[in-house]
Amino acid sequence: MFSRSALRGVFDVQRTTAGQSLVSSFIHQLPRRACLHQASTGSQFQATPHEIPPQSVPSSTPSSSSSSSQSSQSSPSTVPSTATTTSEPEFAPQTRNYIPREKLPVPPIFTEPLKISKSLASMLPYLTTQRPHYISAHLHARPYLLTEGDHLRLPFRMPKVKAGDILRFNRASVIGSRDYTMKGTPYIDERMFECRVRVLGVDAEPMRIKEKTKRRQRHVRHIKSKHKYTLMRVMELKVKSLEELLEEGAQIVDDGEADPTIEKKV
């Protein structure tokens, strides 16, 4: 029979050999597992190319690199065409000087050129150079005597206007200065002058209460009224010179064929 020490040595040798064999087998299996892991990651990279950026193409395949570069150059060129086809409608910026389309004035339609008599052409330079000018502008058959810088309160509230809008008075019967007066029959052609006003706002009068009764009745009715008026300021009053009228296509005719006349005050 073997002694206990001999048996213990034999068992220790078997344990060490078994442990070494396990470690060696594990080490031999590591490269295989690593290869399997790399293969699995490569398959994931091929399955999801849009999530991971593509690797650089080796220099050994110049044809593939050139084809990829051509495709990359051709693809952006097709993007603007799609963008232009699906472009949104143009939008005008909301600036301080922006005027909506529905607020733009309708341009007048003239079938004949402006006719200026010889006497008017000779006196017009005196009127244009002598400032300031005054104008008798007509609005709803009411004349308003105005000069540049005057404030005007209309006896009514003008609809569809707001503070900041610029309007033009194109109907006038008299335009003059200190020594000269131009009169129309009944109105002066609007191509000979420019009168622009700016809307300042709306003014309101105090509340009015009026009592009304009927005969042989004790009932008294209280009528309340509070009128509103539009405030304006004359921004520009200009009489066009003879050179400007001729550039716009005016014609000089004999006396008696043109309506407006200029008179000198005595």
Quick tags:
single chain; 266 residues; alpha+beta; five-stranded antiparallel sheet; four-stranded antiparallel sheet; 32% helix
**Global outline:** elongated
Radius of gyration: 47 Å
Give the biggest beta sheet. 5 strands, antiparallel
Kindly estimate the percentage of residues that lie in beta strands according to DSSP: 25-35%
Strand order of the largest sheet: 3-2-6-7-13
Low-pLDDT segments, ≥5 res? 39-45, 74-89
Mean pLDDT: 77
Along the chain, the helix and strand elements come as HHEHEEEEEEEEEEHEE
Number of distinct beta strands = 13
Distance between the termini: 162 Å
The percent range for helix content is 25-40%
Helix-strand category:
alpha+beta
Task: Specify the number of helices.
Answer: 4
Biased composition (Low complexity): 57-87
GO molecular function: structural constituent of ribosome
Biased composition (Polar residues): 38-47
Family: Belongs to the bacterial ribosomal protein bL21 family.
